[in-house]
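Need peptidylprolyl isomerase's 3D structure for a figure. Predict it.
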Amino acid sequence: MKLVISILMLISATSFAQKSTEVVAQVGNKTITLEDFNKKYNEIRTQTINPPSKQLFLEDMIRYEVGVQEARKRGFEKDPIVQDQYNQVLYKALLEKELGQKVQKIQVSDKEMEAWYKNNPELRTSHILIEYKPGATPAQVAEAQKRATEIFEEVKKSKRPFEELVKLYSDDALSKQVGGDIGWQSRVTLVPNYYDAIQAMKVGEIKGLIETQFGFHIVKLTGRRSFENANKRQIRAAVFDEKRKMLFNEYFEKLKKTYSIKENKSALK
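Structure prediction for peptidylprolyl isomerase:
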C-alpha cells in the first residue's frame, strides 16, 4: 500500500513539475513558463480590484518582453538617462537589502516623543510678509528689506492691533484675510529659519525681520501648544524619521571608509 501511495505521489509531483515548466509563450530568446506567468498574474490579482483576464495579461507580458528586447537591440542600455535610472534602482536595492529590516524594527516610545516635542513644539503665528519674487536681483531684495524695516518700525510704534496692520501692509494675500494667521505649525511644516526664530519667542511677542525664500516677515507669536494637545502622529513620524536618518548615517559613514573619496567643497561657494 505504501508503495502504491509513493508511486502516486511521484507521478503527481512529476506531473506538476511538467505543468509548471510548460511554456505559455516564446518571445525571441525569452521563454515564459506557466510558473512565471502564474507568479506574476497572482501578484497582480492581489494588487488590484479589477485584474485583467489571463489572456490580456499574457499579452502584456509578451509586449513587455518585446519592448525590453527591442530596447536592448537599439542599445538603450548605453543611454545616460537609462544608466542613471538603473543606478537609482541599484541604490534603492542596496538600501532595502542592507537597511530595510532595520528600519522596519524602529520603535518610537511616548517618552521619546515627549522629549523631541520639548525642543520642537507646535507654534501658532501671524505675520506680515514683505515679499520679493524668486530670482529677485540684489537691488530688489534690498528694496524689499528697506520697506520691511520701515513697516517694522511702524508696527513697533503703532497702537493698532497687529491684525489691522497685517491688512495694511502684508503681501500675503491668503493669510491677510485672517489677520496674518498661518495656523498651528511645527518644525516639519515651516521653513527652518522661520521656525528657529519663533521658537524662542514668548506668546504675544512681535519679532522682525525674519528672511525666508518668500521675503521678509514680521511675526507675532500667538500660541504655543502643549504636548497633550499636539499632533501625536506627526511627532511620532518626526522621531521615526530621525532614527531612520541615524541608521542611514551610520551605515554610510562605515561604508565610505572602504572607498577613496576626495572632496572640493570650496568649489561650492
